[in-house]
Design goal:
Elements (H helix, E strand, L loop, with lengths): L5 E4 L2 E4 L3 H13 L7 E4 L3 H9 L1 H9 L2 E2 L4 H9 L10 H15 L2 E6 L3 E6 L2 E6 H12 L4 E6 L8 H11 L3 E5 L4 H9 L7 E4 L3 H6 L7 H5 L3 H8 L4 H4 L1 H14 L5
Parallel strand pairs: 3-4, 3-10, 5-8, 5-9, 9-10
Antiparallel strand pairs: 1-2, 6-7
The structure holds uridine-5'-diphosphate.
Uridine-5'-diphosphate binds next to helix 9.
Length: about 260
C-alpha cells in the first residue's frame, strides 16, 4: 500500500516521492496478491492539474489512483512556491523505463496500448507497415531483450470497440498495461475498465511510445535539465501552443492560491 505523503497542488493530490520511492510503491502494487481491480498510476503535469479543476471525473480518478508521480516541472516549482516542496520531478517516460527494467528482471509481461495505427517503416529498402506501439516494442526489445511483450494495440478505436480491446489485453495474459492515448483519455480508459482488466497495474504515458518508436524526438538534455521540455515540444509541434497556455495559467493560479490560502 502507498504510504507516502500526498501534497495538494491546486486541490489535486501528488505523491511526495522521488524516483526510487515511486519504484518501491510500484513493486508493492505488482506484488499485491488478491486485488480485485487494476491499480492506476498517474503522471500529472501542470496541464492535467488545470484540467482536473474543470473535470470532476479526472480529479476523482487522480484522487483514487494508487500512485501519483510528479511528472511536470511546473508542479515541482508550484510545490516550492506553496512551501511544500516535492522531492524531485519523476518523468513518466523515465519511470516507464524503470518499470520495463523491473518487468524484464522479474519475468512479468507488458502490453502496449495506444498511439497511431500503421505508419510507414522502411526496413532494408523494403516498405514495412507497423504501428507506433509495435515499433516502440521493437526498439524496447533492443535494449531489454528478455522483456515479455504480451501484445500491442493502436489507440484509435471507437467506444464500441473498447470491450474488444479489453478482451485482447486480458487474453494476452499481460501483467502490466502501458496506455498511450493522451490525457485524460488514457486515465479514463483504465479507470472505466479497472474491474474488468486482469492486469495488476496500468500507467498512462502520453507520447512515450512515439518517443521510443522515434516518431517524436525527446527534448535534448539541455532542455530536460532546465525544465524547458515544453519549449522543445512547442518547437516540434507549434499547433500545441493553445494547450501550452495551461502552464502560465497554472503558475498564476498557484501564486493566487498562495495569497488566498488555497481558496482560488
Ligand atoms: N492517441 C491515441 N488515441 C487517441 C488520441 C491520441 O492513441 O484517440 C495517442 C497519440 O497518437 C499519441 C499519444 O496518444 O501517441 C499522446 O498524445 P498527446 O501527445 O496528445 O498526449 P499528451 O502526452 O500530451 O497528453
Amino acid at each position: 500500500m502507498n504510504k507516502s505523503k500526498r501534497v495538494k497542488i491546486l486541490s489535486v493530490p501528488v505523491d511526495m516521492v522521488n524516483a526510487d520511492e515511486a519504484m518501491e510503491i510500484f513493486k508493492e502494487l505488482m506484488e499485491e496478491q488478491e486485488c480485485s481491480e487494476s491499480s492506476l498510476i498517474v503522471t500529472p503535469n501542470s496541464e492535467i492539474i488545470v484540467n482536473a479543476a474543470k473535470d470532476k471525473e479526472l480529479k476523482e480518478l487522480i484522487e483514487s489512483a494508487q500512485l501519483i508521480i510528479p511528472d511536470g516541472i511546473g508542479i515541482v516549482y508550484a510545490s516550492k512556491i506553496m512551501g511544500i516542496p516535492l522531492k524531485e520531478r519523476v518523468t513518466g517516460i523515465d519511470f516507464l523505463e524503470q518499470i520495463i527494467a523491473y518487468l524484464e528482471k522479474t519475468g512479468q509481461s507488458i502490453y502496449f496500448l495506444g498511439s497511431k495505427p500503421a505508419i510507414e517503416a522502411k526496413e532494408e529498402g523494403q516498405e514495412a507497415r507497423a504501428s507506433v506501439a509495435e515499433m516502440a516494442a521493437l526498439e524496447i526489445l533492443k535494449k531489454y531483450p528478455d522483456l515479455k511483450i504480451a501484445g500491442t494495440h493502436h489507440g484509435y478505436f471507437k467506444e464500441s470497440e473498447e470491450s474488444d480491446v479489453v478482451e485482447k489485453i486480458n487474453n494476452s495474459g499481460a501483467d502490466f498495461l502501458c496506455v498511450a492515448l493522451g490525457s485524460p483519455k488514457q486515465e479514463k480508459f483504465v479507470n472505466k475498465y479497472k474491474d474488468r482488466l486482469n492486469v495488476k497495474a496500468a500507467i498512462g504515458v502520453g507520447g512515450s511510445l512515439d518517443v521510443w518508436a522515434g516518431t517524436l524526438k525527446r527534448a535534448p538534455e539541455f532542455y530536460q535539465k532546465n525544465g524547458l521540455e515544453w519549449l522543445y515540444r512547442l518547437i516540434q509541434e507549434p499547433s500545441r501552443y493553445k494547450r501550452m497556455m495551461a502552464l502560465p495559467l497554472f503558475m498564476i493560479k498557484v501564486i493566487l492560491s498562495k495569497f488566498t490560502g488555497g481558496k482560488k
